[in-house]
Design brief:
Porin; 19-stranded mixed β-barrel; 19 strands; mainly beta
């Protein structure tokens, strides 16, 4: 089965985007028990602003075969709710996304509906707010690689709001993905799992802002730890060390620096602590 469109090039994109906490301090606690999953997150950015959220995922109490996910964010006057069902229509996973006010008149609000369907050759996903927008993407698996297309439609004017095509190829240890919005632009990401301990990724982008090039790598260390870095042609250089602690905890320490002018300010440090209880 081909990957969903948003996951094309995921291995390379994860090397650039995951495992870094520079400019913020974060704590995350997850727990699972009897079909229930709880995730609590706390976050403080460089300005000192603190944000938090609590998420609960569980089977629907009405026994419809649905999975419910409820997210509470302090300061927000509503609960975010998602209801996911894979049994209503065979082979199709439907997710309804809405919110429930926690003050004033408790009338639920509907935000969008999402759908996902796949087989061994095709992976299709869509979402719509049933009033003004429809988004759809599809990936077709061929012997030479995966071909993908992503379209956004303005339901009122019936005009394309955005479009994008992609090609993904996986050969041995190499994963390659090309994307373009057909507007004199492209993005190429290249991932190579050199061996069991080392992975390297390269990203090249061209658009109206110009050309950019970046390199990232992740190397496994001792006792389950890992070290990773990324550097871009604008001089931004980031380092991160991830180490497991006792009882399922994980500590991440990161830093981001201006490699072209280390004497300047603006360098960022950060840390993340994750618990799996």
């Amino acid at each position: 089965m081909p990957a969903k469109y948003g996951d094309l090039g995921k291995k390379a994109n994860d090397l650039f985007n995951k495992g870094y906490e520079q400019g913020k301090y974060k704590v995350e606690v997850t727990s699972k028990s009897d079909g229930f999953e709880f995730t609590t997150k706390g976050h403080q950015d460089a300005s000192g602003k603190i944000s938090a959220s609590h998420e609960m995922k569980h089977p629907c109490l009405l026994k419809t075969g649905s999975i419910m996910k409820t997210t509470f964010t302090p300061g927000k006057n509503a609960l975010d709710i998602e209801a996911e069902n894979s049994k209503l229509i065979k082979g199709l996973k439907l997710t309804a996304v809405g919110s429930f006010p926690i003050e004033g008149c408790p009338i639920p609000a509907f935000n969008k509906i999402k759908g996902a369907w796949s087989n061994d050759k095709l992976n299709v996903n869509f979402d719509s707010n049933l009033s003004s927008s429809v988004n759809i993407d599809a990936v077709f698996g061929a012997p030479v690689g995966n071909f993908g297309v992503k379209l956004g439609l303005n339901a009122k004017s019936l005009e394309l709001a955005n479009r994008e095509i992609a090609f993904n190829m996986n050969k041995g240890s190499i994963d390659y993905t090309f994307r373009t919005a057909l507007n004199k632009d492209y993005n190429v990401v290249f991932h190579n799992q050199v061996n069991d301990n080392t992975a390297i990724a390269v990203s090249s982008t061209y658009n109206s802002k110009g050309m950019s090039l970046a390199l990232a790598s992740k190397v496994k260390g001792a006792c389950g730890s890992s070290n990773q870095f990324k550097i871009a042609n604008n001089g931004v250089f980031a380092l991160s060390h991830i180490t497991p602690l006792r009882n399922g905890a994980e500590l991440t320490i990161s830093g981001e620096f201006n490699a072209t002018n280390l004497q300047a300010g603006g360098h960022k440090l950060g840390a993340g602590l994750k618990f799996n209880l």
